[in-house]
Amino acid sequence: MKVGILYSRIRKDEKLLLNELRERDHEVEKIDVRKQTFDISEAAEALADLDIVVDRCLATSRSLYATQFFEAYGIPVVNSHETADVCADKVKNSLALEKAGVPTPATKVAFTKETALEAIEEFGYPCVLKPVVGSWGRLMAKIDSRDAAEAILEHKATLGHYEHKVFYVQEFVEKPGRDIRVVATDGEPVAAMVRSSDHWITNAAKGAETDVFELDDEARELVQKASDAVGGGLLGIDLMETESGYTVHEVNHTVEFKALDGAVETDIAGTVVDWLEEKAAAEADAELEVSA
Q1: Per-residue confidence (pLDDT) for residue 160, from 0 to 100
Q2: At what angle are helices 81-88 and 60-72 packed, to 10 degrees?
Q3: What does the radius of gyration of the chain's CA atoms come to, in whole angstroms?
Q4: How does pLDDT run across 160-176, given as a tens digit for each residue?
Q5: DSSP-derived secondary structure for 104-168
Q6: How far from 109 is each of 117, 167, 208, 215, CA to CA, in Å?
Q7: What is the C-alpha separation between 48 and 227, in angstroms, rounded?
Q8: CA 71 from centre of chain
């Protein structure tokens, strides 16, 4: 199998995948998106014979465009452009989960400071304001008062970029000081961990402590439904525990798994490569059937 790894920086996650692929004697083409150009009519020679491409781009914009090009070239890419497009935008993510009947926090979207303040007041305090595009828990705000709401909305409105003028307001979910990260391949859980912190943002990138988590049937069902809702693929699905059960607050399409790898005994990279091999073989079989 010849695998393309599309990246902008080689982190521990990518090293784990690269090591596993090479140990199995797969040929790997490292594709630095910062140095690559894409022709609208045909793939570059080095890319033309790839069996599958794994998108590990850090920048959302590069991920969205690059996945479109590989799909246009007829080269299988994980995750697909459809999945990347839905997961990269919190509004699209929330709409997809809601449409699929996946429990997800109550959310409102507004386009002016005035209507955003109305939405915040309707939720009451505290509530949460998030950027529509972003990761690692950055630029999220827990709003505890009207004064804080007015100040934060003013700052966002003057930042300049149009995405900051899309106000994504969400209920504050009372959780037991932790949330759950599940890495899944087409809805099948690979492994799960809890991320615990005294801070309201329980994110490993923010320093949360991690530990293995055993999924029950309810959680497994939600992971499958959430994966299906965004188009499937290699995903990080985040759940929170509430008095009424789990709620899925986000699905991530270029999921980092180094923290999970350190928290569980499961061979994350090995399981992911197993899945990639199956994916590539299925794509090859489908192509043979079409050409027959």
Answers
A1: 64
A2: 160
A3: 20
A4: 677 778 999 999 998 88
A5: ---EEEESSHHHHHHHHHHH-SSEEEE-SS--TTTT-EEE-SHHHHHHHHHHHHTS--GGGGSEE
A6: 11, 6, 28, 32
A7: 29
A8: 19
